Amino acid sequence: MLSASVFNKIISKTHNKVIGVAKNYVPQTSDIVYNRIKNPYFFFKPNSSILDATESNPKPIKIDSEGDVIPEIELGFMISKTGKHIKEDEWQSYVGGYFLAMDITDAKVLQKEPMNLAFCKGQDSFTPIGKLLLPKDVEDPHDLTLKLEVNGSPRIEGKTGEMIYSVSKMIRMLSIYMTLEQGDMILTGSPISAGRVKPGDQVKAQMFAEDDLLDEFSLNVEVL
Amino acid sequence: MLSTSIFNKVIGKTHNKIVGVAKNYAVKSSDEFYQTIGSPFYFFKPCSGVINATLPHAEPIRVDSHNEVIPEIELGLMISKTAKNIKERRWRDYIGGYFLCLDITDVGELEKDPQALALCKGQDTHTPLGNFIHAADIDDPHNLTLNLEVNNKPRISGNTGEMIYRIPKILSMVSSYMTLEQGDMILTGSPLPPGRIYSGDHLTAQMFSGDELLDEFSLEVEES
C-alpha cells in the first residue's frame, strides 16, 4: 500500500536537514531579541521552508498580513560527504560548497512563544537560498562581506570573520552529536541588526569576497 | 559537478521532516523541567536521528557515558498527502498511518541551554520508530494506551486521550504555518513522567488499543 512504502522510504533513505545557529555574531547588542540569548545555539529549519532564490523570477517571502519578520542574511555551506565525529582540522574535506542565504523569523510568533522556533523559523519561504559556490571559488569563508538592503537602503553589513563559532567549529560541535549527511546544509548565523521587514518591502542580499560580488538575489515580501 | 547536483537535489526534492510537540500532556508531576514550560510548542527532529526499532537487532539508544536522557513514549503519525491549511474536520484525509515511537532528550544539553533543542533532541539514535500501522486499522487514535517499562519496571502509562492538542488541532496548527508533505511525521507528545534513563538500561515500549497490543519494541541503552 502507498502509505507503508512511503513510511519505509522515510526510514531507509537520507532526508537532508538544514541547521541554523542563533546568535553566532556579537555577544552584546541593544536589540532585546538578541540579548535574551546567551550563547550561540543550533536549531533546525525544515526543507519545506527553502525558497530557491536563484530562479529568474523567484517566489516572494510570504508572511502574515499583520506581522513582520526578521530578515537575517547568512553564509551557508553544504556537507559534501557523510561523517560523524569530524575533527576540526578536517573541516575542508567535508564542505562541498557555500551559498548566500537568509533565515527569516516571524517576529510576532517569536515574541509570543520564544520556544516555538519551529513556527517562528520553519514557515514556507523562510529559508531563501542562493547558488552553490564551489570551495575553490571561495578562498576564505571567514573573510566575506554580507550586505542586506531593504527597499534600496542599507540594512545589514557584516563580515563572516565576526562569527563566534567558525565553520570548522560548527562542523565539529554538530558532528559529535549527529551524523552530518552529504547534502545537509548549515547556515552560519547573521550579522546584526536585521531589524524587521513587512509585506510590500523588497530585500536585496549580496555576498562579496573583497570587491568581488560572489552572489546576489532580490526578493519581494508579500502577504500570505 | 557532483556538489552542484547534490545541491540541486536538496533544493528541488522533498526532504521529509519530523515535527514534535513539547508538553502536550498535562503536568501531573513535580518534574522541575516540565514545570518551566508554558503551552505546548513545536520543534523539529532530524531524520538522521531515526532508529528503526522494528529490526530484530535494532541499534541501541546511544548516550554519553556521563549523561542521562529523558525517554518519552509517543504516538506518531505520518502525513499521506501534501497540504497547507488543513481544516480540523478533514484531519483523517491527511493521515496515512500511525506508529509507536520514542523522543529521547539529552538532559546535559538541555540544562546547558533549554532553547538548544537541536542538540538536545536531534542526536543519532534519539528517534526510535516502531511499525507502521495503517490509519484504517486504528479506530480512535485518541484512545490508545502507551506503556513504557525500564528494566522491566513500569515507568509511564498514559492514554492518548489526555493530549492537550489533539490530532486535528495539531494538523491544523502546524499546516497553517508550513506545508506538510506526504511522508512527514508528527510525534504527538508523551504522557508523564518519563524520568531518566542511563547507559545499561533496557526499555520496552508498548501501544494498546483496549487490550489489543498494536505494537511493541525493546531497545538497549548503551554508551556512545
From TrEMBL, chain A:
One of its GO terms (cellular component) is mitochondrion. Gene3D superfamilies: Fumarylacetoacetase-like, C-terminal domain (3.90.850.10). GO terms for molecular function: acetylpyruvate hydrolase activity; metal ion binding. Residues 18-207 form the Fumarylacetoacetase-like C-terminal domain. Keywords: Metal-binding. Belongs to the FAH family. This is Fumarylacetoacetase-like C-terminal domain-containing protein.
From TrEMBL, chain B:
One of its GO terms (molecular function) is acetylpyruvate hydrolase activity. InterPro entries: Fumarylacetoacetase-like_C, Fumarylacetoacetase_C_sf. Gene3D superfamilies: Fumarylacetoacetase-like, C-terminal domain. Keywords: Metal-binding. It comes from the Eukaryota. Residues 18-207 form the Fumarylacetoacetase-like C-terminal domain. GO terms for cellular component: mitochondrion. Belongs to the FAH family. This is Fumarylacetoacetase-like C-terminal domain-containing protein.
